[in-house]
Amino acid sequence: MLFVTDLKLRRSFEASPADVALETNFHTVVIPGQPPDELEKLLGAEFETELGPALRLIVDARSLADEQDSGFLFYFMALLTIKILGCVRASGSSWATPPKCR
User: Following CA atoms 44, 46, 48, 52 in sequence, which dihedral angle do they give, to the nearest 10 degrees?
Assistant: First the structure.
């Protein structure tokens, strides 16, 4: 279960990921000569499989000393930054004004 906060309705509740956090083909791109889900497969199947255990090891060790584990964390942070920046640009907002992303 996930803890969900709906800012528009000003309420919080618990819900399953399938009900609130499921979006398929999120990373679909059109690249000539490549299948449209190439990026999705790369990020989903390979990266996310490694990220979970790396985060667990970082938390358990309370350290970023392991270069491979910290590399996964920093890569994840970079992906989130790129997604947030895209959301900000798409919404016409600025960093000073929170975006209204879907």
Answer: 160
What residues does each domain of the chain span?
29-91
Output the furthest CA–CA distance in the chain (Å, rounded). 46
How far is the C-alpha of 26 from the C-alpha of 23, rounded, in Å? Answer: 6
Q: In this structure, what token pair is assigned to residue 49? A: 């499989």
Which residues, including other chains, have CB under 8 Å from residue 97's CB and lie 6 or more apart?
A: none
Please state the pTM of the whole predicted model: 0.56
pLDDT tens digits, 43-65:
766 787 888 999 999 999 999 99
Number of alpha carbons in the 13 Å side-chain half-sphere of residue 49 = 7
Average pLDDT for the chain: 79
